[in-house]
Amino acid sequence: MVFEFIRNGLLQNNVGNNMINKERDVKKVKEIMSRLGRFDNAKSPEPHGIITRELDQSIKTFQKENNLKIDGIMHPKGETETALIDTMLYKTVRNGLNFSDLEEEDEEESLPPVPPQKPEPPSDITPEEEDPKESPDIPQDEPKHDCSHLQTALDNAEAALQQKEEALEQASTQIEAKRTQLESKISELEQELDAMKAAKTPTDIAVTTIGIASGALGGGLIGSIGGPGGAAVGILTGGHRGMDIADEAREEVSKNIMLKEIEIEQLQSQLDQLDGALEAFENEVSAAESLVSEVEIALEQCELSE
Predict the structure, then answer these.
(1) Residues 263-273: pLDDT tens digits?
(2) How large a percentage of the chain has pLDDT more than 70?
(3) Helices 100-110 & 23-35, crossing angle to 10 degrees?
(4) Which backbone phi and psi does 21 adopt, to 5 degrees?
(5) Is 282 left (phi over 0), alpha (psi -120 to 50) or beta?
(6) pLDDT score at 266
(7) Percent helix, strand, coil in the chain (nearest 5)?
(8) Which site among 81, 153, 198, 206 is 20 to 30 Å from 56 CA-CA?
(9) pLDDT, tens digit (0-9, with 9 covering 90-100), for 145-154
(10) Count of C-beta atoms within a 10 Å radius of residue 202
């Protein structure tokens, strides 16, 4: 059946520099990349088991465009092969590309060799002895319109959609757990921040009052020696010292508040990243759903045209 290799995978061995590079696998990668417009197979005279610089660059470019690891290597059932299959499926539905002959080549390679046939003995019948009547022409049935490739494409699109939905469900569970943890931590820090801000003004007043009181006490002692003038100087000096202490306290509290706010912002940024990751999974599911819908429409139109 057309596209059966999508289920079983394209490659049997690794393809890329310093890999096994079986001729069957390299030939298939070259042909697929050529049909996708990423490689000129006609300008590749090297044996099929040879990885050329052009093919290596073609694989790396494909990996870069699909946000994959860029190493020029394709593994059986690996992420690059999977992305290439998705692209083939998309091109089949959107552009009508046909990759069925690649599967036929696989089937031909998998068939056991046919043993040589012994030559038949010459017939004793001469041309004159053959029946002079020509066999009548047997009308041939017109080939039926084949929609099997679209049915297979639909099966694979639905399977891909199921995988995307399962990945989304798993990611949603993990992201929700992480989100709960971050939100709890943010709530805890915000409570601490509110408490620090609420205590900031009373702290200023208390520190200033203590400074003035200590100045008054010192001024009183001085006044007992130097008289009322000394007491006044002592009170004034103590008040200024109290204000200095208050400024230092305010700066320390402000610094702690700023650090707490930065910590909250960092955790909030992590929450935003989780939202972005979840959205990426949701977009993949949405794209897979759209592909299924498009294949369903194409299959319906094909069946109606029979």
Answers:
(1) 999 999 998 99
(2) 63
(3) 170
(4) 55, 60
(5) alpha
(6) 92
(7) 70, 0, 25
(8) 153
(9) 578 878 888 8
(10) 9
Q: Note the pLDDT of residue 92.
A: 76
Contacts of 2 (CB under 8 A, 6+ apart): 99, 100, 103, 148, 149, 152
The tens digit of pLDDT for each residue in 3-47 reads 555 556 788 899 998 888 888 888 888 888 888 888 887 776 665
220-250 per-position pLDDT tens digit = 565 556 566 666 666 666 666 666 776 777 7
CB 82 within 8 A of CB 70: no
DSSP state of 42: G
User: Which pLDDT band holds residue 2 (cuts at 50, 70, 90)?
Assistant: very low
What is the rounded (10 degree) CA torsion for 47, 53, 55, 58? Answer: -170
AA letter at 301? Q
Tokens 């400074």 locate to 211
Please give the Cα distance from 268 to 175 (Å, whole number).
14
Which of 191, 1, 224 shows the shortest CA–CA distance to 107?
1
Helix (H) / strand (E) element for 234: namely helix 228-304
In one letter, which amino acid is 30?
Answer: K
The H-assigned helical ranges of 118-147 are none
Distance CA 67, CA 60 (A): 10
User: 27 burial class (0-12, 13-18, 19+ CB within 10 angstroms)?
Assistant: middle
The vertex-5 CA angle with 297 and 78, nearest 5°, equals 105
Query: b/e string for 70-84 if b means 16 or more Cβ within 10 A?
Result: eebbbbeebebbbbb
Tokens representing 148 are 């099997």
Report the alpha-carbon distance of residue 232 to residue 165 in Å, rounded. Answer: 80
Regarding pTM above 0.70, the answer is: no
